[in-house]
Amino acid sequence: MGKVQKYINARLMAVQAVYVHEQTGENWDKIIFRFTSGEAGGKVLKETNNQEEEIVLDKADTGLFKSLTQEVASAQKNIDNILRSIISEKTDYNRLELVLKCILRVAVAEFYVNQDLPTAIIINEYVDMTGAFFNGSEPSMVNIVLGKFSKTIR
């Protein structure tokens, strides 16, 4: 397995971890431990021709997973305020689907923890991820939101 796929898996697992925290309120350290030990996460459902198939992710880059998750854990209020200010122009941030919020939170966190990675790559990774979850305008929205955010940070 290549490095790129490990990074993709780490991002997806970070989104899953943020989702778990949001749903359960479980302690961040415990969530990170559960994901890195293989006890939780690492699986996704893929829908093809109206049939769901469980896909087990191969190993993820643990360092990136931890960095993204810890950044969201320590800065979630700030991240949410940033996103709220960008999104408020078109829609209410609080009304976004939880999966979409989690994707956006992790994406913003990546701008902070992966500062050497080109903006276009970060945006493309999360737009692609959003496209795996949503069939509507959500990928376009993620592209716009992250594009606006990237101009404020870089």
Task: Describe what you observe in this structure.
With about 150 residues, the protein is mainly α. The chain has a single domain, classed as N-utilizing Substance Protein B Homolog, Chain A, CATH 1.10.940.10. It is about 70% helix and about 10% strand. The chain has six helices and two strands. It has a two-stranded antiparallel ribbon. α4 packs antiparallel against α5. The N and C termini lie far apart (about 30 Å).
Note the topology.
Elements lengths: L2 H22 L3 H9 L6 E6 L2 E6 L5 H26 L10 H16 L5 H15 L4 H16 L1
Antiparallel strand pairs: 1-2
Helix pairs in contact: 1-2, 1-3, 1-4, 3-4, 4-5, 4-6, 5-6
Q: Round the Cα radius of gyration to an integer and report it.
A: 15 Å
Unreliable sequence segments: none
CATH superfamily: NusB-like
The run of helices and strands is HHEEHHHH
User: What profile does the largest beta sheet have?
Assistant: 2 strands, antiparallel
Number of domains: 1
Average pLDDT over all residues: 89
Q: Which structural class do you get from the secondary structure elements?
A: mainly alpha
Percentage of β-strand residues = 5-15%
Helix content: 55-70%
The strand order across the widest sheet is 1-2
What's the CATH architecture?
Orthogonal Bundle
Question: Termini, distance in Å?
Answer: 31 Å
Number of E strands: 2
Tally the helices.
Answer: 6
Shape: globular
CATH class: Mainly Alpha
The CATH topology name reads N-utilizing Substance Protein B Homolog, Chain A
Which tags fit this structure?
single chain, 154 residues, mainly alpha, N-utilizing Substance Protein B Homolog, Chain A, 68% helix, 8% strand
